[in-house]
Amino acid sequence: MIRTIRRYGTLIGIIAVILFFWINIPDTFMTARNWLNISQQVSMLAVTAFTMTIVMAMGDFDLSVGSMASLSGIVAALAFKAGVPVPAAIILALGVGVLGGLINGALVSYVGILPFVATLGTLTIFSGFAFLISGGKTIFGTDIPASFSGFARSGVPLFPAGEQWVFLPYLTLLALIVLLVVWLLLEHTVYGRRLYAIGGNTEAARLAGVRVRFLRFSAFGLTGLGAAAAGLMYASRVASANPTQGSGLMLSAIAAVFLGMTMSEEGEPRVLATFFGVLILGVLDNGLTQMSVDSYVREILVGTIIVLAVASSSLSKLEQR
Amino acid sequence: MIRTIRRYGTLIGIIAVILFFWINIPDTFMTARNWLNISQQVSMLAVTAFTMTIVMAMGDFDLSVGSMASLSGIVAALAFKAGVPVPAAIILALGVGVLGGLINGALVSYVGILPFVATLGTLTIFSGFAFLISGGKTIFGTDIPASFSGFARSGVPLFPAGEQWVFLPYLTLLALIVLLVVWLLLEHTVYGRRLYAIGGNTEAARLAGVRVRFLRFSAFGLTGLGAAAAGLMYASRVASANPTQGSGLMLSAIAAVFLGMTMSEEGEPRVLATFFGVLILGVLDNGLTQMSVDSYVREILVGTIIVLAVASSSLSKLEQR
Amino acid sequence: MNAPILETRKLSKSYAGVPALKDGSLAIAPGEVHALMGENGAGKSTLIRILAGATKPDAGAIFVDGAEVSIEHPSQSRRLGLRFIHQELSVIPELSVAENLFLGRPYPRRFGIFANWRELNRQASKALDALDIGHIIPSRKMARLSLGDQMLVKIAAAFLDEDGEAARVYVMDEPTAALTSEESERLFKVIAGLTARGRSIVYVSHRMDEVMRIADRVSVLRDGETVATRAISSISKAEMIEMMTGRQIAEAYPPRQAAATSGTALSLTGASSSSAHDISFELHAGEILGITGLSGAGQSDILRLVIGADKRTGGGVELDGRTLAGGTPATRWADGIAYVPRERRREGLLPRGSVADNTVLAHLRTLSRAGILRNRRAELKRSADIASRVKLKSTGVTQPVFQLSGGNQQKVVLARAILGAPRVLLLDEPTRGVDVAAKFDIHTLVRELAASGVGILLASSDLSELIGMTDRILVMREGRQVAIVPTDGLTQTRLLALSFGEPA
Amino acid sequence: AGKIAVITPYLSQPGTQFYVEAFQEEAKTNGWDVNVIDTKGDVAAAISRIEDVSTQKVDAIVINVDPAQVAAGLETAKSDGIPVFGMDAGASPLLVTNVTSNGYAMAADTAAYTANRINGKGNVVMFVFDAFPPVQARGVIADAIFKNNPDIKVVERVTPDVSDGGIADSRAKMEAILTAHPEKGSISAVWAAWDQPALGALQAIEAAGRQDEGIVITGIDANPQARDAIAKGSNFEASMAQDFKGIGRATADAVKRHLAGEKIKQSVIYVPTKLVTSANAKE
Ligand SMILES: Nc1ncnc2c1ncn2[C@@H]1O[C@H](COP(=O)(O)OP(=O)(O)OP(=O)(O)O)[C@@H](O)[C@H]1O
Ligand SMILES: Nc1ncnc2c1ncn2[C@@H]1O[C@H](COP(=O)(O)OP(=O)(O)OP(=O)(O)O)[C@@H](O)[C@H]1O
Ligand SMILES: [Mg+2]
Ligand SMILES: [Mg+2]
């Protein structure tokens, strides 16, 4: 029983929240339309959180993801402005993400700086670059090609509902693909298992022949790539790029991973659990808005529910002693 | 030699930065006036960082300090508005800080939630309350008593310079007092030494009879108190209170502590080292602004210098292996 | 017998339904050394952790001076006069030696608030001198001490006298596992002094000779139950082993199976790292080469140099005649060198990982599909095979290793090293904390590996193990190699003399 | 009774607060049920909330954010048949109408005031914020006016950190600038694109004891703290009053007319602005 709560406390919390909204917003909450909305709303956070799970598997952090997301959006927008074709601009922006991530990785693994400090430093640097190259301006309007901003507004047609079709938004699809890839990587490849070994005990992993430095280096590159992708998704969704737009992503992504960690038995970050972490954050925002809860009260409730969900699983873990 | 760099890398970095500014801004940088300015500008960050060092000595974090600073400013301002006398309003705001800190402490030590998650949750909650009770508005003007805002504009007269006197600002004095108190607490009381013991090896400390739970609980209370004090200092300096005004403090405070950690032998947080961490951040901002460095480039430089300072000591630590 | 000073009756404790201790009953008389024996995982540490207030029992009672007590927190246990040296080294590396000694106790103070450092260091110095370990400087950071010295500080901490809270029973969980023989001797001297003053000792060790020498009585735990308590004078080693294991085992070393072949597996020529200098030897295929020396002489450092954990600053290393350049542990394992590090918890184990995760860690690629996709089925099968080969006691290969007893954790690290059929095996204290029966199993295994042509380097502080297992022994002193001697005909005394610097 | 959602990422800005309040007052008299949603600077979250209230089928949505950036949400609202109104948002075919002050005129008025007061010559410090499009426009207009005066030199164009509201960082920046320009008269004016930096600059000038050098400070928005400073006759001489309440009321009026079935023809409804100096600051 206690074991069940411990393991499933967070999951039970999510289900309770969903039931609550279903009962209180009977007409609109539990509809395909609304769930697709939610999925699209959280897709950028999801991609950031999924790829953040990669470095967190090693016990590291990446605080720079938000700045990187802003920077990648700005890079793409400036490339558009300079007449670079959309695919090339996207590749450029993703390349900046990988590069920035690898810089983090090099600082952490080859230079030996604590991830917290290294990525705090690069957070400032990336953000500075985003401001510098954009001149601090929001890039919007005709500078952003319609094919780019159209991506976030379209999707794969699923089924007709009345006169309109219901679409699976491309943003949602993209997030699901990233989930699948990160899941395969972390759970089903040698690479992923080694990341978890580093997270378990870095020195033991090194002495057992794990190439700790190279793995940390490369894992940060992947997280940087994810952050850049999230930045592009964001830019596409708001049809503009702004040097601060990713700043909310970092803390939420870390929160989602931690929420997920309460669901795994050993308290390890697992990407499927991160998925539920993202879900709870998205559902709370959506449901509470639909219930016309004051936005500040909503914030307090979200914080409280996070703490309660985590508490339920932590308390029962304490009992175990 | 390598040992020296390892230990003093960050300090050498600070000295290099100061010399650089001295040479490039010969007339105004190395003046008492300017240093007093710097000291006053960083005083709020300093108080936050000094008290953050208390929980970081235990290996914990407090992400909620920024929200708490905002909340305490709002509480005091609303109390002023309601006609509460200044000293009572200040005590009330500090009390909110202690209470919030103890809530963090209870979540971390009695409920057993990771500090990162617990304080991420309360970050949201405190911020929500700050917005809720202020209605999201900035409180300023005649609502703020002159005796309160006057505090940040006055100080202890030091010596005459021309027609004017040079003052030691009260904000600076307050930060120095907090430094002294935290230093005595951490380095010269059994309480402080036990916090370091918890940070070094929690299980060993517990087995040796250290009351780990109570210590963690109370230490968070002290950090909350410091955050609230910083919030009041901030409100006094800007003669107004705004529900987001503390938000920049958290990352900077953690950065300052980490910067300091590079200066201690075993990499543990020490409050005197945190002082230098705060100093480097303040000096960089002041000097680069005086040199008319573009604000975005300044941001990039600050990030780079942080990384370099830390790198110099990390690289030489790697060599040791 | 006098009325017991400390008694436990039917203590029990289960973890997730699996019993760790079922009937822990002990009665400790004043002034005696009471040995607590049992196989790995028998429940000794669990019983001790309950006494220390580190774990809550499910049932049972504890009596001090005949009165029932409840122990909720380590500080309560201390007030009752119990002192502990726990199995896993638990020090605070960031604090000074003196502060580690006074951990959890009131420091001497000034004005009632501030620590009086001078007085603290003085008292610490006194405590260290009393244990004859005055070479340890109280103001030094714990992190700068060797493992053995750290253990001695922990021991000194248990012996620290305090006003008003006189110690009555000292409980020591394998205190000598990390000590050299000279350091152990110091401990025994202190123990003799304490019992002479009427203090009691509960002493856990897997070293039979020690127990026979210093204990007055012995209690044996088997599968979580106290099976007997006997006077040491009325029992033989063989009987004791049979009580522990339920079978008869020779407390001896397995015989050499075949002569070492002559081919060279590993050779070092003037190899150096920052802490081991100018090391040269040839390890033959099938040979077991021991490494000895005083504490801190650099025994471990040779192994760390070979596996690539420490940077090589000079000289050469050849494996099967092939020069190994540069190198990290990753390339060394790939070359066919396997390693059992010295400190299993810090350097060996992923504590939250399962037995399988831990054993396959160094072999993920060989067990994978196409070198990329992990093959979970193969991982589970191979780790189950190897676990049974080292006679691991666990609920299965999916059990997390932090739940295993100390000796079984050691076997997991060993299992990892032999899973890949290595060419050269580096063993640093491979049987530390392993029970008699399992030690025999491990020794047999090492012999078999040698017979199959594996070259083995064995660093151990257990001189009888070195003499019983090796073909030749390399003696280290102050980071330098001083001699390589054939094991045949060596005595422990002679070996110790060599370590102290007597010419070979 | 109608259900109206007001969505903005910028509620902590005093201006936004005023028109939201005025809107709420009007709403009360109309018997509407208003839900004010603040996404705290997050534009994508504003889209999400627009989608959520569309799902909820509110009667009208009022936004205070660039409509081009939230077009994804506006399209959802459109397909759900929910009218969206801009309250100082920006013009867009996806809006019924947008109610706003004339930002170009405001920047032109204060910049021209400054140029006039310093007789078209001297060093000017500008505080700008180009990340926020309406404020960016103010900077561009002021740039043009200063450039048109050959003897005016813009010595610093500062973007303060606004995460704390903008006063504290602007003050620190101004202190450093003053330290870097120590001679009397070396700074003639400070032009700020909104009031907070002007207030920060004023504090810095007073703290440095240089209030008697005749440095002219102007802001835009004329918030109460700024009005106080202007009324006192400090260096902070002028600001522009937008009629925030007017914007809020005019928006409510537009919503009311639309709900009543009237077709609103103007894509932008302008609400007049006014220069505030010590003469009229107390009003
Ligand atoms: N936290 C835990 N969770 C689950 N099982 C545990 C835990 N701690 C100990 N056990 C189990 O309890 C049993 C007894 O372990 P204990 O550490 O008391 O053995 P021991 O006699 O001290 O052995 P050793 O000589 O190897 O140190 C073992 O089977 C072990 O796996
Ligand atoms: N980082 C360090 N700084 C200062 N002294 C150190 C450091 N590391 C080790 N020492 C000291 O160097 C000596 C050699 O340590 P080493 O770890 O090589 O010993 P060892 O041969 O493994 O012996 P054992 O671990 O059994 O004591 C010890 O006396 C130790 O205290
Ligand atoms: Mg044990
Ligand atoms: Mg060693």
TrEMBL record, chains A, B:
Gene Ontology CC annotation, any one: plasma membrane
Its membrane topology: Multi-pass membrane protein
Entry's transmembrane regions: 7-25, 37-56, 63-80, 86-103, 110-133, 167-186, 214-235, 247-264, 271-288, 300-318
Record keywords: Cell inner membrane, Cell membrane, Membrane, Plasmid, Transmembrane, Transmembrane helix, Transport
InterPro entries xrefs: ABC_transp_permease
Superkingdom classification of source: Bacteria
Cellular location(s): Cell membrane
Molecular function via GO: transmembrane transporter activity
Pfam families reported in the protein's UniProt record: BPD_transp_2 (PF02653)
Protein name: ABC transporter permease
UniProtKB/TrEMBL annotation, chain C:
UniProt keyword annotation of Transmembrane present: no
ABC transporter domain: residues covered: 6-248, 261-503
Any one GO molecular-function label of the UniProt entry: ATP hydrolysis activity
Source species, domain of life: Bacteria
Keyword tags: ATP-binding, Cell membrane, Membrane, Nucleotide-binding, Plasmid, Repeat, Sugar transport, Translocase, Transport
InterPro entries, per the entry: AAA+_ATPase, ABC_carbohydrate_import_ATPase, ABC_transporter-like_ATP-bd, ABC_transporter-like_CS, P-loop_NTPase
Keyword Nucleotide-binding listed: yes
Protein family according to the UniProt entry: Belongs to the ABC transporter superfamily.
PANTHER family recorded: CARBOHYDRATE TRANSPORT ATP-BINDING PROTEIN MG119-RELATED, D-ALLOSE IMPORT ATP-BINDING PROTEIN ALSA-RELATED
Name of the protein: Sugar ABC transporter ATP-binding protein
